[in-house]
Amino acid sequence: MSDLILIIEDDAAIAALLERSLKQHHYQTLHVSTLKEARLQLQTHTPQLILLDLGLPDGDGKSFIPHLRRSLQTPIIVVSARREEREIVAALDLGADDYVTKPFSLVELMARVRRAQRRASMVGDDSEVLTCNGLILDLERHRFMLEEMPIKLTPIEFNLMRLFMSHPDQVLTHQHILKQVWGIGYQQEMQYLRSYINTLRKKIETDTARPRYIQTELGIGYRFCCHHEGVL
Ligand code: CA
Question: Which residues are placed with Cβ below 5 angstroms of ligand 1, an ion?
Answer without folding.
Answer: 10, 53, 55
